[in-house]
Amino acid sequence: MNPLLNANNLHVRVKNGGEILRGLSLVLNPGEFHVIMGPNGSGKTTLGLTIMGHPNYEITEGKLVFEGEEINELPPDERVRRGIFMAFQSPEEIEGVKILDYLRLLLEKVKGVDRLKSHDMVMEKAKEVWFTEKELARDINVGFSGGERKRFEILQALLLDPKLVILDEPDSGVDVDSLSLISLKLHEMQKEGKTILLITHYGRILQHVDPSRVQVHIIKEGKIVMHGREKLVKEIEEKGFKKVFEECGCNE
Q1: Can you name the residues that pair with 94 across neighbouring β-strands?
Q2: Which residues 6+ apart lie within 8 Å of 103 measured at CB?
Q3: Nearest to 105 by CA among 95, 93, 115, 94
Q4: Fewest Cβ atoms nearer than 10 Å: which of 144, 154, 174, 218?
Q5: Average pLDDT of the chain?
Q6: Three-class SS string for 90-144?
Q7: How many CA atoms lie within 13 A of 174 on its CB side?
Q8: Angle at which helices 146-160 and 176-191 pack, to 10 degrees?
Q9: What is the percent of the chain where pLDDT is above 70?
Q10: Where are the alpha helices (DSSP H) in 27-66?
């Protein structure tokens, strides 16, 4: 099986700032479910934004290869067209832009969907994540709860039908019902063959997914230092990152 994404010896710095990723390597195969965990400031979100091509993050060494093609210099919109999607931890409010208009434009520009058909597609998928026609007429994220913001991110993923879905702390500020729905949609996406890369500080969301499907990677100071499964998550929940790093010799 050829990897969907191969991050090889990535060194990444914030433009006009310091290095955050320091030789990180990770391979994601089609249909796999990966979880990145680590303390605050360890580089979790930087990894997601780098894969997505955020202009504030510069790869100074190493390669990002997606479906056999190096994408280091590929702009974000081209990465989206190739099948990479990222749901952000704190999506921005955009006043004056209606959800329905935005989603229809997204389908037309990224997927080449006919304007009339795009309306039907949005309405159909919106129901799956509990958005009504009235809610689709709201401005993007304005006055949204944490659960609504995250469900809106999932709605975009459902419409774009990406090959790689990156989620940055989807359990942050989310109610239990929304978290269960998000977990269900992630399960459905993986069954369809999509690769999931979930970035989180805590293991809360993993209580809502099948742990046997999940591969866990622990990042520390810009490098992945541990790999494991459900047992590793439970150990971190019980002991904390500091104690686990001491026991594994990761501080040396």
Answers
A1: 140
A2: 118, 122, 136, 155, 156, 159
A3: 115
A4: 144
A5: 91
A6: CCCCEEEEEHHHHHHHHHHHHHCCCHHHHHHHHHHHHHHCCCCHHHHCCEECCCC
A7: 25
A8: 10
A9: 98
A10: 44-52
Name the residue among 174, 181, 92, 100 with its Cα closest to residue 141: 92
Residues 175, 4: Cα–Cα separation, whole Å: 32
pLDDT of residue 15: 85
Whole-angstrom Cα distance, residue 180 to residue 150? 12
The predicted pLDDT at position 165 comes to 97
Higher-pLDDT residue of 229, 79: 79
Please report the pLDDT score of residue 68 as a whole number: 95
Which pTM was predicted?
0.93
Contact 155, 141 (CB under 8 A): no
**Rounded CA separation 213/205 (Å):** 13
Distance CA 80, CA 156 (A): 11
Per the document, the length of the chain is 252
From CA 117, how far away is CA 214, in angstroms rounded?
A: 36
Contacts 24+ apart (CB under 8 A), 104-107: 106/156, 106/159, 106/160, 107/159, 107/160
